[in-house]
Amino acid sequence: GVDDDRLEAVVVDLVAGRGWKIAFLECGMDGELTRRISQLASPAVGGVRSAKEDCETFAGQVEALLASQRVDLALGVRNRAAGNRQEITVILAGATGPRQRDLTYGGHPANAPRWAANLALDFLRREIGDH
């Protein structure tokens, strides 16, 4: 993007440009992704959910969101503490199956949700650009 473009708006516009719909799921993110996506008024957004509990079945929840919301893509991002670092999981589910990226974040835990949301949105941007 340029100037005042925000990553979430650019990504949702890419999804809309393909004629697709997307749903989002976050876990352990303190509402970071939900806030950012909820500010957009786009028909390409089929829903945003924040999983409060049971993050162990996160991959299954992303797949279930894809089916239940009747969308083309579902993007999930999970942040969880693992000692002195945060483990970030990003899952993109769609017609070609799920793609997952696992990362660790060693910075201040309060910054992890924003970092994870940016990584998830960029992962989506790159995946859309490849297809």
Give a topology summary:
Layout: H1 7-17, E1 22-27, H2 32-38, E2 45-51, H3 58-68, E3 73-82, E4 85-93, E5 99-105, H4 112-129
Parallel strand pairs: 1-2, 1-3
Antiparallel strand pairs: 3-4, 4-5
Helix pairs in contact: 1-4
Question: How would you describe this protein?
Answer:
This protein is of the alpha/beta class and 131 residues long. 36% of the residues lie in helices and 30% in strands. It has 4 helices and 5 strands, in the order αβαβαβββα. The chain has a 5-stranded mixed β-sheet, sandwiched between helices. α1 packs parallel to α4. It starts with 6 loop residues before the first helix and ends with a helix. The model has no long low-confidence stretch (mean pLDDT 91).
Condensed summary:
With 131 residues, this protein is of the alpha/beta class. The protein contains four helices and five strands, in the order H-E-H-E-H-E-E-E-H.
